[in-house]
Specification:
heterodimer, A: mainly alpha, B: three-stranded antiparallel β-sheet, 5 helices, 9 strands
């Protein structure tokens, strides 16, 4: 399995890297974090109260940015058919894509969250909680991205539909992610972890089925 | 392959197709456009389900169709190496396949710069290097010049002689002596051996 799994992950990462995909979420997060104080005013108290939630919204939208480039181009170019012909199941391809998608935006986003948090006047404890929450929540967001990309791969104007499809599914991640920002909110983190495990577990199966259905 | 029926978009393209392909045999699927040649190839490769009937396939396959499965930015060498890694193909056989289709001078060219025929030659070289027993070729001659066609013919000859099998869909004759021909038509199929 490792014979083909890592080459597929590597290829997806190389594409994300060459297409500027790696920097897009980072720049997006920084843009939001730097515009937010202009919109709500420079009141440090207000910023630090709302900034954490703002970061979570930005992280969610950043995860959905490359959705139209995750699967549809590979269907178009015949990559997924060629994988299938080689006996690689669509589920494993979806899992490889999930891993590659997370690596290409999760860690960069967590790094970018540090300067963004400084712009939003978050205190040290809140920054730590944002980072822990992102570490648990970004795999869920990556899974959601791959799932929605697979479901919309054969549609025209997939980007808009992907957003509509993803947002309701992302609400629990957002609720528990932002909910984990307050002191003594360990339960929210556990719920976040539960949702992350659920999404990561069902995505390869559901996305694989969607890829297969798209062949007909 | 027994009693295969193909239905696409509510239309029955062909029905009750029965044939058998052994090692060392090659089959050409002929017929006009839209008659179901590509669908048949995709059904044999397992990408499309059979509406009815069974396709038994025991050996590894390599597929060449009109979609090249190449990244625009990567070079011919990287593209071939990527698939060779997945196919567990030896570097020597990859080099030989690339040389056979005259790709040696193109190895460092990004695939987006390739012409239609050159792209086709890369996909054929990938199939040749894959080591798969059964080659499924969908219109392999499209876009090829005379020399590349001859290279394709000799590659097919060598593959069949070396214990492989080929199913090729083509609306024109390929420079290879097929052991069988299926002609898909509007009303009937004829199987000639």
């Amino acid at each position: 399995m490792t014979r083909w799994f890592w080459p597929i992950v590597n290829r997806d990462l190389a594409i994300a890297w060459s297409g500027g995909g790696l920097w897009l979420p980072v720049i997006f997060l920084m843009l939001v974090a730097s515009l937010f104080p202009f919109a709500v005013g420079p009141d440090a108290r207000l910023l630090s109260a709302t900034g954490g939630g703002m970061l979570w919204i930005a992280a969610l939208l950043a995860a959905l940015l490359p959705v139209d480039r995750l699967i549809a181009p590979d269907v178009e170019a015949g990559f997924l058919d060629q994988y299938h012909v080689r006996g690689i199941s669509d589920e494993m391809v979806a899992l490889a894509k999930l891993v590659a998608h997370w690596v290409s935006f999760g860690p960069p986003l967590m790094l970018a969250a540090l300067p963004a948090a400084a712009l939003l006047k978050l205190d040290g404890a809140t920054i730590a909680r944002v980072e822990i929450g992102l570490a648990i929540g970004t795999p869920a967001l990556a899974a959601l991205g791959v799932l929605v990309a697979a479901l919309t791969a054969s549609l025209r104007s997939a980007g808009a539909i992907a957003g509509l499809l993803a947002l309701p599914l992302a609400v629990p991640v957002l609720i528990f992610g932002a909910g984990s920002l307050h002191e003594g909110s360990g339960a929210a983190l556990k719920f976040l972890a539960a949702i992350a495990i659920l999404l990561v577990a069902i995505t390869p199966v559901a996305a694989g089925a969607a890829i297969r259905a798209g062949r007909e | 392959m027994r009693d295969v029926v193909c239905r696409r978009g509510g239309r029955e393209l062909f029905a009750n197709l029965t044939t058998k392909l052994r090692i060392g045999e090659s089959l050409r699927v002929a017929g006009p456009n839209g008659v179901g040649k590509s669908s048949l190839i995709r059904m044999i490769s397992g990408l499309l389900p059979c509406y009815q009937g069974v396709i038994d396939r025991t050996d590894s396959i390599a597929l060449t169709d009109e979609r090249a499965a190449m990244d625009r930015g990567s070079s011919v060498r990287n593209t071939l190496n990527f698939w060779a890694k997945l196919d567990r193909a030896a570097p020597a056989s990859l080099e030989a396949a690339a040389a056979h289709f005259g790709l040696s001078p193109l190895m460092d060219v990004p695939t987006r710069m390739l012409s239609t025929g050159q792209r086709k030659r890369v996909t054929l070289a990938r199939t040749m290097a894959s080591g798969a027993k059964l080659w499924l070729l969908d219109e392999p001659g499209n876009g090829l010049d005379q020399r590349a066609l001859a290279a394709l013919g000799s590659a097919m000859d060598a593959h069949v002689a070396g214990g492989g099998a080929i199913v090729a869909a083509s609306h024109f004759d390929l420079p290879h002596h097929f052991t069988g021909v299926i002609t898909l038509g509007q009303d009937q199929q004829s199987v000639a051996a």
